[in-house]
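Below is our example:
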Amino acid sequence: YYDESIRVDITHTRRSDADFTVAEVTVKHASQLRTGLATALGRSGKKTTTMANEFLAVLAINGDSYSDRKTGLEIRQGTTLRDKVSNLYDTLLIDRNGDFHIVLRDNLEMLDFYLSGDLVIQNAFSFGPALVIDGEKQEIPEKYSFAPHYKNPRAAIGQLGPLHYVCVVVDGRSDQSEGVTLETLADFMAELGCTQAYNLDGGNSATLVLGGTICNDKSPSNERSISDIIYFA
């Protein structure tokens, strides 16, 4: 898809007995990177395709399913949904310029630095773990939520450069595609050239939608209802 303000290129590849769907996105203005909730500041779930259509998204990927947890900083479109910072999850911050900043869970002082500084944080997610920070692939913690060392369906988002992003979904739990560990996903995001990359909610939530149509190998009947999406307008 392309027009005067956005370009999306979808590719499919295979790695480690799993199918990857990759969406490379370039936008003209940072405001085109947005988040959407299933209901206004609410928790009831909707499918990714439903929200993508409601928000007129060109491309959408599932978010971090913030309503499934009770802790972790959550900001959406400048509105703080939850201000309960947690040392359980790495945090992805997206500022008003559309730039990504990832803070590791054991560095809450850095999180305070970003939040109290000159940057205007537009969106914040508490899930992770971090996959790439400042161009360096991150070591996946031995102990972290979301089964990091098992092969599962996965979803991730990364920044390649100014107003240049990539969304990745890996299919899993099928005979055709086993899914991947987060180590494999981190390798992949680093090889794509991400300066920053972050793991989003995976499993049955992992869904990539272009123009209202699911791009990865998931039927509409198998979509999970979730609380939030990240999308490009």
User: Anything to note?
Assistant: Helices lie at 48-54, 108-116, 182-191. The first helix runs from residue 48 to 54.
